[in-house]
């Protein structure tokens, strides 16, 4: 079997409204199809700046056409060596490699008439636990009632403990809560520790991205001073991007983005690295499209240290038009049994949702993330003012 062509499909996916907050970013999904001379077609997805990923995929087309798609690792290494002349790969390059790698696993599964999870070692579990995003008690109760969720994540950096306290009172003690403290703006290291300690009373499942991903030593300080499991990793690419987080046990939960880590191949290597350090895997899926979500489900079905899957419940309608939805029932997602990834895109839906840009200024003035009067500064990291009111603990 030989690869004969690669085609990309860029689709506007609406505006993200994660965790009930103000709109912060336009979203796009970049899908790829890898064609073979035996008529088997593989589907994949790449994220990490989808419009740029699409350009990278077009460049990589000449690298993979003519290769045997069954030789996944060989093709992955060839793509890495080919792109290294451009410097560190970064998430756009990794996202492109990710999309092709994912499609190759889909092809192999279809060729062998077996699901991808079976190629990864077989099934550890039939259902994957999922969590949703809730910025208010009302949204939290809606998700619990509609999907049976037993885990919810909230975000933001403004009066975080008060927000978590309100959610806890609404959903009770049997629902796990998580906090994503990612910017903008990011906390300073000391503020991240102060906020983290104020959250200890709520017994969170994890405290995510409390400081900028650029500063690994700051994350270590948070880990050493806060008695909550620490999670990070969604902004990194390849196993080398998360190596220190795992090998130095700076995190308790590693969160690779299934669209930009480098593919299913990299996800499996990363999961094995994490297993050796007793670290759980909870893939990031906050802005991803549905193909990468399918891939994450197959991976979580196969690895022993799977924790939970992030899911944008009640996402934009186009998500459920471009692929068939796997429903969340009683807080879990059933693992698909069809060959390959078990999914394809509706190309007409993609064509009806053309991309209209990929960047926008995160947040809105008055949303509470930036200190009053500083939103137009758009700083990357900010020390908080009104500290008694904003950094105090709930309870």
Based on secondary structure, the structural category is: alpha/beta
Detail the poorly predicted runs: 17-24
Overall residue-averaged pLDDT value: 93
In terms of quaternary structure, the protein is single chain
Q: Beta-sheet strand percentage?
A: 15-25%
- Radius of gyration over alpha carbons? 20 Å
The SSE order reads EEEHHHHEHEHEEHEHEHEHEHEHEEHEH
Task: Specify the overall morphology.
Answer: globular
Q: Please give the count of helices.
A: 14
Which fold name corresponds to the CATH topology of the largest domain? TIM Barrel
Please name the fourth-level CATH homologous superfamily of the largest domain.
Enolase-like C-terminal domain
- Tell me the CATH architecture of the largest domain: Alpha-Beta Barrel
Number of domains: 2
The main β sheet shows up as:
10 strands, mixed
Termini, distance in Å?
63 Å
Tell me the total number of β-strands. 15
Helix share bin: 25-40%
Outline the structure in words.
The chain is of the alpha/beta class and 395 residues long. The chain folds into 2 domains: 112 residues, Enolase-like, N-terminal domain (Enolase-like, domain 1, 2-Layer Sandwich); 225 residues, TIM Barrel. It is built from 14 helices and 15 strands. Strands 4, 5, 6, 8, 9, 10, 11, 12, 13 and 14 form a 10-stranded mixed beta sheet that branches. A 3-stranded antiparallel beta sheet has the order 1-2-3. Strands 7-15 form a two-stranded parallel sheet. Strand 1 and strand 2 form a beta hairpin. Helix 7 packs parallel to helix 8. The protein is globular, with a radius of gyration of 20 Å. About 2% of the residues have low confidence.
């Amino acid at each position: 079997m030989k690869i004969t062509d690669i085609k990309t499909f860029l689709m506007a996916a609406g505006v993200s409204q994660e965790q009930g907050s103000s709109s912060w970013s336009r979203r796009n999904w970049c899908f790829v199809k890898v064609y073979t001379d035996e008529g088997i077609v593989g589907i994949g997805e790449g994220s990490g700046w989808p419009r740029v990923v699409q350009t990278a995929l077009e460049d990589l087309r000449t690298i993979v056409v003519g290769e045997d798609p069954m030789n996944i690792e060989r093709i992955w290494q060839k793509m890495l060596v080919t792109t290294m002349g451009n410097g560190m790969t970064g998430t756009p390059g990794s996202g492109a490699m990710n999309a092709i790698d994912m499609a190759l696993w889909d092809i192999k599964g279809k060729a062998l008439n077996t699901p991808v999870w079976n190629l990864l070692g077989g099934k550890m579990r039939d259902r994957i636990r999922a969590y949703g995003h809730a910025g208010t008690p009302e949204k939290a109760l809606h998700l619990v009632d509609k999907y049976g969720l037993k885990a919810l994540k909230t975000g933001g950096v403004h009066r975080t403990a008060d927000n978590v306290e309100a959610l806890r009172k609404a959903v009770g003690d049997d629902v796990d809560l998580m906090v994503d403290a990612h910017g903008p703006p990011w906390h300073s290291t000391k503020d991240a520790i102060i906020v983290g300690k104020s959250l200890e009373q709520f017994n969170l499942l994890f405290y995510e991205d409390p400081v900028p991903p650029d500063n690994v030593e700051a994350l270590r300080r948070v880990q050493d001073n806060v008695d909550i499991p620490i999670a990070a990793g969604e902004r990194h690419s390849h196993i080398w991007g998360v190596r220190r987080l795992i090998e130095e046990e700076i995190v308790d939960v590693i969160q690779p983005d299934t669209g930009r880590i480098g593919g299913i191949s990299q996800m499996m290597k990363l999961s094995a690295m994490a297993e050796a350090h007793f670290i759980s895997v909870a893939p990031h899926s906050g802005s991803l499209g549905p193909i990468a979500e399918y891939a994450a489900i197959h991976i979580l079905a196969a690895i022993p240290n799977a924790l939970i899957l992030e899911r944008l419940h009640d996402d934009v309608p186009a998500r459920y038009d471009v692929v068939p939805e796997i429903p969340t029932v009683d807080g879990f997602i059933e693992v698909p049994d069809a060959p390959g990834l078990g999914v394809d895109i509706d190309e007409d839906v993609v064509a009806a949702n053309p991309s209209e840009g990929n960047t926008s200024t995160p947040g809105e003035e008055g949303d509470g993330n930036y200190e009053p009067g500083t939103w137009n500064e758009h700083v990357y990291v900010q020390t908080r003012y009104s500290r008694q009111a904003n950094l105090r603990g709930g309870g």
